[in-house]
Q: What sequence folds into this?
């Protein structure tokens, strides 16, 4: 099931569907932060703020993959990494 939706579609969702979507997005953010912490033993404050501000599931999926593939925190933060979402 794809959760890539536009604001227009989101605004037409039922309250239950919106809560479900918000839960999925929140869980993805937590997964990304946990993966960064497990791989690199820390999550820079600025990076945590950046991730908490992303509310597009497609962007979060791309970010999860970038974190998974990164060999170092520095690599992740370089252009083409986090900045290249």
A:
């Amino acid at each position: 099931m794809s959760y890539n939706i536009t604001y227009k579609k989101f605004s037409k969702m039922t309250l239950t569907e919106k809560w479900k979507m918000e839960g999925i997005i929140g869980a993805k953010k937590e997964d990304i932060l946990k993966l960064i912490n497990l791989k690199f033993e820390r999550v820079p404050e600025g990076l945590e703020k950046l991730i908490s501000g992303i509310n597009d599931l497609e962007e979060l999926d791309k970010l999860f993959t970038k974190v998974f593939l990164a060999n170092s925190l520095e690599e992740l933060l370089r252009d083409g990494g986090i900045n290249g979402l």
Q: What stands out?
A: The longest helix spans residues 15-40.
